[in-house]
């Protein structure tokens, strides 16, 4: 390690940082449990770094962290303050730590540019959730998961209608004739998911408030 630092005296830290980022980005997608474990490792690393900087340099910090995957990262949230910033949330934001974490969790997903997401399932989830939120609605998650099977019922409950849904494609939440009950997004094959995500990203598929008349999910 010392030889490596001597060989690259000005760039060794940047080289290691780049390697670390490349290694993380090239890894396979994480499961929900793995995502939570990785988050906890990150919070410990960041907390240790901040506390060390406080002790060594007198720096202070107030930190909020959470995940941005809608209906998957609901349990992932973290808040930390160094000793000199312990009363920051209460005195400046008029909120305790639990409230601040809740506010931050609500803020982050709503600011994700879902129209640029490459993952089609994630794009569909975030796109539909964002349109509900823009109309003042809120999807009711099932055990922390996106309510694929209950989407028609959620639309009706909010008095929303979906317009521009791709023709000749099974509506999310509607059962196929070949299965006993709907499976949600699993009822759509990969090609259909791509088409649905494209309809959302292009703006052809929209959700609107229905004040009078038919409350069925329109295509």
In words, what does this structure look like?
The protein is mainly alpha-helical. It has helices at residues 2-7, 12-25, 32-57, 88-92, 97-110, 120-134, 151-158, 190-202, and strands spanning 62-66, 77-81, 160-163, 206-209. Helix content is 46%, strand content 8%. The mean pLDDT is 81. The protein has eight helices and four strands. The termini are far apart.
**Major beta-sheet overview:** 2 strands, antiparallel
| Basic shape | extended
- Judged by helices, strands and strand pairing, the structural class is mainly alpha
| Poorly predicted tracts of residues | none
Beta-strand content bin: 5-15%
Report mean pLDDT, rounded to a whole number: 81
Note the gap between the termini. Answer: 62 Å
Number of helices: 8
**Total strands:** 4
- Physical arrangement of strands within the biggest beta sheet: 1-2
Fold topology:
Layout: H1 2-7, H2 12-25, H3 32-57, E1 62-66, E2 77-81, H4 88-92, H5 97-110, H6 120-134, H7 151-158, E3 160-163, H8 190-202, E4 206-209
Antiparallel strand pairs: 1-2, 3-4
Q: What key phrases describe this protein's structure?
A:
two-stranded antiparallel sheet; mainly alpha; 219 residues
């Amino acid at each position: 390690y010392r030889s490596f630092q001597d060989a690259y005296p000005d760039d060794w830290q940047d080289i290691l940082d780049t390697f670390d980022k490349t290694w993380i980005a090239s890894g396979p997608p994480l499961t929900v449990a793995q995502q939570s474990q990785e988050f906890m490792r990150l919070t410990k690393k960041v907390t240790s770094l901040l506390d060390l900087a406080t002790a060594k340099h007198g720096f202070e910090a107030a930190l909020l962290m959470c995940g941005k995957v809608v209906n998957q990262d609901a349990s992932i949230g973290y808040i930390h303050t160094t000793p000199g910033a312990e009363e920051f949330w209460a005195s400046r934001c008029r909120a305790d730590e639990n409230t601040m974490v809740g506010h931050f969790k609500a803020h982050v997903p709503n600011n994700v540019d879902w129209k640029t997401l490459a993952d089609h399932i994630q794009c569909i989830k975030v796109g539909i959730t964002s349109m509900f939120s823009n109309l003042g609605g809120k999807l009711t998650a099932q055990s922390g998961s996106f309510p694929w099977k209950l989407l028609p019922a959620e639309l009706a409950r909010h008095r929303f209608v979906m317009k521009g849904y791709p023709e000749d494609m099974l509506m999310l939440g509607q059962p196929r004739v070949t299965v006993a009950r709907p499976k949600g997004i699993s009822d759509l094959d990969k090609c259909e998911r791509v088409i649905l995500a494209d309809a959302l990203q292009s703006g052809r598929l929209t959700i609107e408030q229905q004040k009078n008349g038919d409350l069925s999910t329109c295509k």
